[in-house]
TrEMBL record:
Pfam families linked: Rad60-SLD
Name of this protein: Small ubiquitin-related modifier
InterPro entries attached to this UniProt entry: Rad60/SUMO-like_dom, Ubiquitin-like_dom, Ubiquitin-like_domsf
Superkingdom: Eukaryota
C-alpha cells in the first residue's frame, strides 16, 4: 500500500479544497520504495529547494539521490517553468549507484 505525504516548500500545505495561485505547481516525488511525497512550489523557484526538502524528509543525503523527470536528470538550478512541468507531474528520486558493470572473467 502506498503512503502519500504532503509537504510544502515555503508555501501553504496541499489540501483537496485548497485553491492554489497560478504561479504555484503541485509536484509529486516518488522514491524507489514507492512512497510519494507531494510538494507545492512556485513555478519560478529552483528545484534545489524541493530536492533538499525531500532528502531532509526522507533522511537522505542530497548528494546520494538522483532526481529524474521524464527520464532526464534534474539539476537544482532548473525551475518547473524551464522544464514545462504541469500541475501533478511526478519526479522520480533514485539512490545514486556506482559500478554494476560486467567483469571480464
Amino acid at each position: 500500500m502506498e503512503d502519500e505525504e504532503s509537504n510544502s516548500v515555503g508555501m501553504s500545505s496541499i489540501d483537496d479544497g485548497d485553491k492554489k495561485p497560478a504561479n504555484q505547481i503541485n509536484l509529486k516525488v516518488r522514491g524507489q520504495d514507492g512512497i510519494e511525497v507531494c510538494f507545492r512550489i512556485k513555478r519560478a523557484s529552483q528545484l534545489q529547494k524541493l530536492m533538499t526538502a525531500y532528502c531532509n524528509r526522507q533522511s537522505l543525503d542530497v548528494n546520494t539521490v538522483v532526481f529524474l523527470y521524464e527520464g532526464r536528470r534534474l539539476r537544482g538550478q532548473q525551475t518547473p517553468t524551464e522544464l514545462d512541468m504541469e500541475d501533478g507531474d511526478e519526479i522520480d528520486a533514485m539512490l545514486h549507484q556506482t559500478g554494476g558493470g560486467l567483469q571480464n572473467v
